[in-house]
Specification:
alpha+beta; Alpha-D-Glucose-1,6-Bisphosphate, Chain A, domain 4; 7 strands
Amino acid sequence: MKFEHLIEVNDLANPLQNPLTREELWFGLLCRAEDARAFLPGLEACHIIERSETHLLRDLDFGNAVIRDRVTFQPMNWICFESEANEQHAGGSLRITIEEPQDGAFFLRFQYRTTLPEGTGDEDGQYAGFVRSAYHQSDIDTVRVIRMIAESSQLQ
């Protein structure tokens, strides 16, 4: 299954919303790479196995399952999480890209690729719809957590 959507980060028409900068967005995405516990419910530990200037190799420990993934990134632009398939997990990828169609109007584009069927049959279609909805909610939560990180950084 392939799935993508945009999440608006800064609503420039909303004067009550504190706009995030590209740097704050990027820092939040790096936090998700370094220790994803605040972003992934049920994650017990995140162990970095290997690191370079453009990638991380990590093990995500969910208690009853450990998922190994590789995180690659182009600083300030995009980050990609590619999980390996194992007995407990089918594998897949998520790429998050920072988009700025006009100054300060930031969006995050989430692009998923999984081994799940596209959902052409009734049952498959309902399951794929459920998964898309869960991904969408998780991505809204990602922006919420990034906002919390940015606000806590401003307080220090």
